[in-house]
Amino acid sequence: MRRLVVVFVAVLTGLLLSAAAPAIAQEDASESVRGTIENEEGPVPGVEIIIESEEGEVGTAVTEDDGTFFLPLPGPGDYRATLLQETLPDGMELRNPDRATLEFSIRANQSRPLLYPLGEGGGTANTRVLVTAVQLLIEGIKFGLIIAMAAIGLSLIFGTTGLVNFAHGELVTFGALAVWAVNQIFGVHLIPAVLIGVVIGGMGGMALDLGLWRPLRRRGTGLIAMLVVSIGLSIFLRYLFLYFFDGRTRPYAQYAVQQAWNFGPFRIVPKDLVIIVLSVLILGAVGLMLQKTKVGKAMRAVAGNKDLAEASGIDVERVILWVWGVGGGLATLGGVFFGLSQQVSWQMGFILLLLMFAGVILGGLGTAYGALVGSLVIGIFVQMSTLVVAPDLKNVGALLVMILVLLVRPQGILGKRQRVG
After folding, report:
1. For residue range 115-155, what is the model confidence (pLDDT) as tens digits?
2. Which residue segment(s) compose the domain that 108 sits in?
3. Side-chain-side CA neighbours of residue 281 (13 Å)
4. 81: which of 34, 61, 182, 377 is 20 to 30 A away, CA to CA?
């Protein structure tokens, strides 16, 4: 039954993403880039896009009267496309100016579409603000679910072992990089690559427990000392990823660029919709696992009272090993979804780490459901806050919300009051 569910989800994802891919016929079988620049009023001609490779500039594509552009490339490889914003008509700008430069990879005989959404043109100021707020709400829900996917494992690990694992962000990066390697280097399609990567990520989490954390627990190492070890492990793994992966961000081979679906004034990229749907399904499955399965009940028992669970005949070390495996698999999924949104980088997990801690603490330490609720609050607030603050400051606002909520409810949203001392 479980295999059928996995196959069904994989097939559903493939159908949704394949149906949403831009239906653009290739002009020839060689490598190339193409796209369309347009706004609500129609196509925008005369816009210049410079294409560069590691060797230097490849060429410049200019949009035609119908807003389309096309440029053949010298071959497969890594490229960078920059839209010259000064070539846009007066009063027109990119919806996200930070995305004026796109980095992407081209495989043999592949034609890559490039998307540069322009800002909203008409409507009153209030209407534009409302549309922007709804768009940011959707982005916030997606971002919150991505944070929750990674943070649930962090919360489960804390609940069963008491370890505040600062290296959990590197589990996110490890899983995302593993999927990227299977996808880009070995040429496996992204959907089966994700399934393979989840297994690799889960095994990586188990390997960390067996090789490092279990021996430290048996030696009676204190939690503060283990916290310091996790910080050192985080720094070591992060720069190990930098050494092997390089400092550039890189996309997955599929679904890196897609044409948005328009619903009146609102737009959503198909892969974002798939990320939201799959995240809800996967997190729901995790909740059912914790409530209904023998392993899930054992996890909750160990998190509630480790000594009592051990006295009841539960193999605590085996349960903790399963927790690390589940945490590694979920971290991989969170990393892949984040990589689909932002591209893959050597420090993507470190970028998410502070927000993961914020979500876990806000929701309630040690509870999976608290991590989900807290992460959603953090994700929505981070995105919605850009209505009034600069995007560079949005993470600071999330931490401020966490502090304010904890001043009112120290145990977190779903946490329980505990006697201290």
Report:
1. 888 865 444 556 667 777 888 899 899 999 999 999 999 98
2. 30-122
3. 14
4. 182
